[in-house]
Design brief:
single chain, mainly alpha, 10 helices, 76% helix, elongated
């Protein structure tokens, strides 16, 4: 029940973002929008910043959790990017606030999480945890994070299917298929 209430409050906050700047939304506006008491809000969140932090974590981690049900990395990429796109306004407004660095870290961590999941599924278990694989995953996550920020959050007309296919072909298929230069392939 507590999680549903928190999600209800987050949805109300997201709806208020349609007509208000990020830092102009108050607890009063939020409790009116959600038809809840101030006590209910403060029972779940210390302040608006705590709500935002929880929301960002829910949106980024939620995208990863959904991708874990995908049958392959290609499908996971489409699911992940659609989740980011679905929450575009909220995430975009977070990036235009003091949360930009925090947002970048959360998106990067979520890309690492889902990349690592599918990498481990696609290689022999004895190779699933190596320094080289971790480096490749982290390196790719940094690029993918930048790409998500520039292509999805800054572009309202992005074609998710096309972008997912490009990302899969250029990055994730190599990661999942183990198509590395000979030196790296020998290391892992």
């Amino acid at each position: 029940m507590a999680k549903e209430t928190k999600q209800h409050i987050l949805r109300g906050f997201s709806q208020l973002l349609n007509d208000n700047d990020f830092d102009k939304i108050t607890v009063t506006m939020l409790v009116e929008k959600c038809s809840i008491s101030r006590q209910t809000f403060y029972y779940h969140f210390a302040d608006i910043q705590a709500l935002i932090n929880w929301g960002v974590q829910q949106y980024t981690h939620g995208c990863v959790e959904i991708t874990k049900n995908a049958k392959n990395m290609e499908e996971a990429t489409v699911i992940y990017l659609n989740g980011i796109k679905k929450n575009q306004l909220f995430l975009k407004k977070c990036f235009s606030s003091s949360l930009a660095q925090y947002m970048t870290k959360l998106i990067r961590n979520s890309v690492i999480e889902y990349s690592a999941e599918f990498y481990r599924r696609s290689v022999k278990s004895e190779y699933s945890k190596t320094e080289t694989a971790d480096f490749i995953i982290e390196f790719a996550a940094n690029g993918v994070t930048g790409f998500i920020i520039s292509e999805i959050l800054d572009n309202d007309d992005v074609n998710i299917e096309e972008l997912s296919q490009k990302m899969y072909n250029c990055i994730f298929s190599r990661l999942a298929g183990g198509n590395y230069p000979a030196k790296i392939a020998n290391d892992i």
